[in-house]
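One such shown below:

_____
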Amino acid sequence: MDIVGLGALLVLVLPSIAFAAEKPAYSPDAATPLVTTSRISATVELGLPALAAAIERDIPKRLATIDERINCVHRHVFIFRVNANCDVWGFVDRTSPVSLYGRGDRVFGAVSIHGAAEGQGANRFTARIRGETEARATIEVEARPELRRDGSLQLNISDSFHWSEHPYLHVLGREFDLAPYVEPNIRTQLGRIRSRALAAARALDLHGKAETAWRHAFDPIKISKDPPIWLQLIPQTAAFAGVRADGKVLWGSLELTGSAETLIGQQPPAVTATALPPLGAAVAEPGTFDVILPVRINYEAVKEKVSQAIAAVPAQNTSVREVQIYPSSGKLVVGLRIAKSSDADPNADQWIYLSAQPKVDADNRTFGLSEIGLTTSSEDSQIGSAVQQLAAQLKNGSNLDYGISYQNLLMAANERLTRPLKDGFRMEGHLDSARLGKVHLLREGILIALHASGGLKIVYGL
């Protein structure tokens, strides 16, 4: 088939190609802020072992001392009724550290105790009457942490203890219950446990720490060094995200909602932190963190890829002497300076312009061209036919892989989203997925805006 016939065939195959008379104007997209709505978690953590140690410091090892006189003998001997008193002495000791662990919205605690007592007749006639006992018990505490609207932490505590061996004094075949003489002191210690736990919860000062976390949320974050990319969070609202206990950690969390803006270049000016707004209603779970990651491709890279695609076209009676790539009203213009191979005159050429729609394959991380169309035509049928063939080649042969740039940017962002902050706080963040947002054809190059999602916390505690 001759070149003219091939050109006619390609016109039928590429019906989307249209002809116009003028070179497309240079018209890049205006740079717009890369802003998305995001939610982050401000979390205050407390290690339950540290809370247990704080409680234990105020609880003595000896919980109770027994020093009582009780009526221990009450029986008939022959025709006589014998009533005798006994002196009882003993102790109840704490035999284990205070243990705390969390599960769901509850905190559970336990401590083991051991008691021993002896009794002896209280006068010389009953001095030979003796008895002794030994018993063990477990004190159990259950608390339901609750984050109040003012940011304070309330512990709703219930406690109990049960004897594994009840403290009975055995005297002359009879059992005398010593629990009434022991349990009041134990319950006094339980009150001290409750008081100590509530004091530790108040010492958390969640409201004050939430205000500090709110201020830190306004600090710009440098998520990439080359090129310099900054993340600016602007919180707007705060709401409860609940209080939970997870293994050895008790944490109260607030959810901050606002905008996340990505900026390229110099560090953005400091944003003045507003006052922490009134806390909103509770939310079930902290929200995911969203940020726009900008992948940049310069026009020279696209030009090089287009040139490679053109070089792969089988030899023909024309040659492309120069390639131009520039933006025009949301499309990419591919300018080709073409001449016949047989024409040795360096000025015997003409410019042909194609317009193309940017095409991004977010799954394969590639950038290419689609909907390629001619915007200027040639009176020379031979050149026109060659351009048609080049346009067909560019549809499939000009894909540019940006996967490495994306991975490097994602890794750099993750490295910088986990770092210490001031005042004992730290930031923990991780981005793990991205979807395509928008393609911007800017003056300085192509910007692919990817919406990356993950989690971001501002943490105080462990």
